């Protein structure tokens, strides 16, 4: 199986954030959209590692708190993480049709 070319290297500090609190096997998800790369761990979903590619092809890394994960979600639900182009108009239509409201949360 050919993997293609290397596009970036995840720094060790960010890799540690993906480690679950227990010793064992775990799945890591990678989603890529446009200039962004998102890395999450199914067993430790509290953090999302974000890679952003600049015009020169270099990757800058950051980490954000996954604001939808709390004890209720962890115990009773499955979190699905994906990426797509979604604008504010799309969110407006989706929430109005369902009778909901949406608000922005600080994900830091």
Question: Could you give the topology of this structure?
Answer:
Layout: H1 12-17, E1 28-33, E2 36-41, E3 47-53, E4 59-65, H2 71-76, H3 88-98
Antiparallel strand pairs: 1-2, 2-3, 3-4
Helix content: 10-25%
Mean pLDDT: 76
Radius of gyration: 16 Å
Number of strands: 4
| Percent of sequence in beta strands | 15-25%
End-to-end separation:
38 Å
Q: How many helix segments?
A: 3
Biggest sheet overview: 4 strands, antiparallel
Give me the side-by-side strand order of the main sheet: 1-2-3-4
How would you spell out the order of helices and strands? HEEEEHH
Which regions contain 5 or more consecutive residues with pLDDT less than 50?
A: none
Class from secondary-structure proportions: alpha+beta
Whole-number total of structural domains = 1
Shape annotation: globular
From the structure above, extract its key features.
alpha+beta; 108 residues
């Amino acid at each position: 199986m050919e993997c293609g070319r290397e596009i970036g290297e995840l720094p060790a500090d960010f890799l540690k954030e993906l480690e679950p609190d227990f010793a064992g096997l775990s799945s890591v998800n990678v989603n890529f959209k446009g200039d962004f790369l998102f890395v999450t761990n199914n067993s430790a979903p509290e953090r999302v590692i974000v890679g952003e590619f600049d015009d020169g092809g270099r990757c800058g890394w950051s980490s954000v708190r996954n604001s939808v994960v709390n004890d209720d979600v962890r115990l009773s639900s499955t979190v699905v993480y994906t990426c797509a182009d979604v604008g504010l108009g799309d969110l407006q239509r989706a929430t109005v049709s369902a009778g909901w409201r949406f608000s922005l949360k600080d994900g830091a």
